[in-house]
Write a structure and sequence with these properties.
By secondary structure, the chain is of the alpha+beta class. It has 2 domains: 30 residues; 56 residues, no CATH class. 48% of the residues lie in helices and 24% in strands. Strands 1-2-3 form a 3-stranded antiparallel sheet, with helices on one face. Strand 2 and strand 3 form a beta hairpin. InterPro entries: FlaG (IPR005186), FlaG-like_sf (IPR035924).
Amino acid sequence: MQLAELRGAKISAGDEQKIKMLDKAIKAMEGPKTSLHLSVHKETNTIMIKVMDKDTGDLIREIPPEKTLDVAAKLMEIAGILVDHRI
């Protein structure tokens, strides 16, 4: 059972097939000593990929870096504030 189903969300057959294909692609990209974790940056709605060491759990690489997305989110917030004040 998938996480979305556990949360009560309904998944269409097409979406379920996409999820299975994505899981298969992730498993194909993982190495014997690495694992991949996908997440979404809340403020920018950008997909982040983290490459982790399976043995230690250490972060090897993050694409794009979360700090970069945090800066982008802050810039978007500032731009929004500037627009709000001018109106």
